[in-house]
Write a structure and sequence with these properties.
By secondary structure, this protein is α/β, with parallel strands linked by helices. 37% of the residues lie in helices and 16% in strands.
């Protein structure tokens, strides 16, 4: 991960209008037939495409699937870097598909990748009476992986005005262990420039604004206070060799969440973006199995209550 200092009109990313999130055009929705809904939240600087494989897998099992696009993902970096974590969260909560699910009567499951995993838990906390279970994929509270020394070194800048001038550029392996996928990502990322955000809506951002390290810190502070009060089933899936965030991130949540039903699953042939990497089929199977067990427990509890 390299660091880029951007100052001056020729280097600073050009302004563009914010991209609204929550409509069917910005994310995607798959209609299912088993009465359950899975809400999938992509990661910061990513796209809904990160969740496409998992969405298709769950949909084939009968789940309706909602995958919103996070606020301002698709806009220029100068817009994205000014976005607060609360805006990312509202773009999930207020998306048409999520609103539809929350108004329905079937089981609702929520999952997210990286920072999306934290947003999934915030959603689960706000709608405790609606959401049945949560699955956190490579949750990111701290950038402490083996390929993120720059993030740790520059974290102090995140709390100063200097955060507005620094960006991290994604470097190989881009959170992906699969060499074939790495090559496809590298073809796009290698030539990326701060002033050219063409195709970010499809491929994601090659650059990470340091301002978002500060927003992540604020989000973690907020979520940490909520974790002890979360008592729904929680699953955590992470690669042991995650290049961006160590397994301490999953353990942090596991140790603090108030859930009586919780599990951690470690992968051994993936890096950070486990929803698209070499063990994505295992991730999908583990998620669906966990959701099925949570549904069984929900109905069993309802019957016993009667």
């Amino acid at each position: 991960m390299s660091v880029i200092f951007a100052l001056g009109i020729n280097k600073e990313p050009k302004e563009s209008a914010p991209v609204s999130s929550g409509s069917a055009d910005n994310g995607f929705y798959l209609d299912g037939d088993n009465g359950a809904t899975a809400i999938l939240i992509h990661g910061l600087t990513g796209t809904p495409n990160e969740m496409r494989f998992l969405a298709n897998y769950l949909n084939k099992k009968g789940y309706s699937v909602v995958c919103p696009r996070l606020a301002n993902h698709g806009a220029s970096l100068s817009v994205l870097k000014k976005t607060k974590w609360q805006e990312f969260y509202r773009s999930v909560r207020d998306s048409a598909g999520v609103k539809k699910a929350l108004k329905g009567g079937g089981p609702i499951f929520v999952s997210g990748l990286s920072m999306g995993a934290l947003l999934a838990l915030v959603l689960a906390d706000e709608f405790k009476d609606k959401i049945t279970a949560a699955s956190c994929l490579a949750p990111t509270l701290f950038y402490d992986g083996w390929n993120t020394p720059g993030a740790r070194f520059f974290m102090p800048l995140a709390c100063t005005p200097l955060k507005n001038f620094f960006y991290f550029k994604e470097e190989p392996p881009y959170g992906i262990r699969s060499e074939a996928i790495q090559k496809r990502v590298h073809k796009y990322y290698a030539g990326a420039r701060l002033d050219n955000m063409e195709n970010v809506a499809q491929h994601g951002y090659p650059f990470y604004p340091v301002t978002q390290l500060y927003q992540l810190k604020l989000l973690v502070k907020y979520l940490s206070k909520k974790l002890p009060h979360l008592d729904l089933p929680v699953q955590l899936i992470q690669a042991k060799d995650d290049d961006m965030t160590s397994i301490k991130n999953s353990k942090y949540i596991y140790d603090r969440v108030g859930s009586k039903i919780k599990e951690m699953i470690f992968l051994y042939n993936s890096y950070h973006v486990i929803s698209v990497d070499q063990e994505r089929d295992i991730v999908a199977e583990k998620m669906e199995g966990f959701f099925s067990r949570a549904t069984t427990a929900l109905f069993k509890g309802a019957v016993e209550a009667c």
